[in-house]
Amino acid sequence: MSYRTASVRWSLLPIRLVVGFGFLSHGLAKFGRGPEKFGKLLDLIGTPFPVPTAWMVTTLEIFGGIALLCGAFVLIASVPLAISMLVAIATIHWRYGFSAVNTIGLSATGPIFGPPGYEVPLLYIAALLALSLSDPSALSVDGWLRRRTRTT
After folding, report:
1. How many structural domains compose the chain?
2. CA-to-CA distance for 110 and 27, rounded, in angstroms?
3. Residue 101 is part of which domain span?
């Protein structure tokens, strides 16, 4: 393996871990509060079948996050995760502009933040795209499976 190949494999590892942890933590937060509460938000923005959709997104984020953390089936997991981020941008974040941090005021305890724009979901999509278009990153199940099939 060349230095360049190894360096790309290792440079994608922190991206994969952070994005995987991000999806997993968001999914676990939705699960902890009860997907029905997320379903109420989805109902407010006109999502059809809001509670089943909330369960689907919660499950996707948990299992997609785990898959990314393990580096298992990254391409397969990335497609629905990226689609969910595109839907979030289109239905929620777009109207608030690009910035993830929208300061709308100041109180004695510090800044007051408004709703986030589409910056973070767009970063998630970019990371998922980078992971999907590259060879498996270091310490991944996908890399292990690839090496295993090459030797058999």
Report:
1. 1
2. 29
3. 3-151
